[in-house]
Amino acid sequence: MTNTVEEGEKAPDFDLPSDGDGTVGLASLKGKTVVLYFYPKDDTSGCTREAIDFSGLEAEFDAAGAVILGVSPDPVKKHDKFKAKHDLSVTLLSDESTDMLQQWGVWKEKSMYGRKYMGVERSTFLIDGDGIVRKVWRKVKVPGHAEAVLAAARGL
After folding, report:
1. How would you list the strands of the sheet with 33-38, edge to edge?
2. How far apart are CA 112 and CA 8, in angstroms?
3. CB 115 within 8 A of CB 43
4. Which fold has domain 30-154?
5. Which of 81, 90, 107, 145 could serve as 101's disulfide partner, Cβ 3.0–4.6 Å?
6. Half-sphere exposure in the Cβ direction for 130 (13 Å, CA)
7. What is the 3-state secondary structure (H, E, C) of 84-98?
8. Is residue 126 a contact partner of residue 40, using CB atoms and an 8 Å limit?
9. 0.85 exceeded by the pTM?
């Protein structure tokens, strides 16, 4: 059974390890707008572009009262290397167990060259300060995505 999180629903809480040996939980961000973006893998072309785009707009998200969190199943140590290599500023969270990815409905069966496997469907959720999901983007195409999310965050 796959869960899905839809617009208008209360965002499921989470506590995950973050880059830099931290931990981030949704409850600790109450009152802030949260951009929660899920991506497949550190250091792949699309994921790198997405992280660079969000990092490049971080000051503008901050001005809009929004915190950006990226989530993938990669371990924290890999996140740290990824951030250092590409000078990323956004916070990256690790869900190696995929429990949170499954809870949010982004852990999906994928196919490449005829081979089926489980992986992250690139998705973004915009959560308001009361913990309500206000906008959902699924099957995200990276070009222009960070800008579209920023426009939506400014509208909250």
Report:
1. 22-25, 15-18, 91-94, 66-72, 33-38, 123-127, 133-137
2. 33
3. no
4. Glutaredoxin (3.40.30)
5. 107
6. 6
7. HHHCCCCEEEECCCC
8. no
9. yes
Give the model's pLDDT for residue 154.
97
pLDDT averaged over 10-residue windows placed end to end, the chain, 156 residues: 85 97 96 98 97 98 98 98 98 98 96 94 98 98 98 96
Tell me, what's the pLDDT at 124?
98
- What are the angstrom distances between the C-alpha of 42 and each of 3, 34, 83, 141, 150? 24, 21, 9, 16, 22
Q: Can you tell me the distance from the alpha carbon of 76 to that of 62, in angstroms, rounded to the nearest whole number?
A: 24
Structure tokens at 86: 């590409």
Tell me the CB-side half-sphere exposure of residue 142, using CA atoms within 13 A: 14
Domain spans, the chain? 30-154
Active-site residue set: 47
Nearest alpha carbon to residue 11 among 98, 155, 134: 134
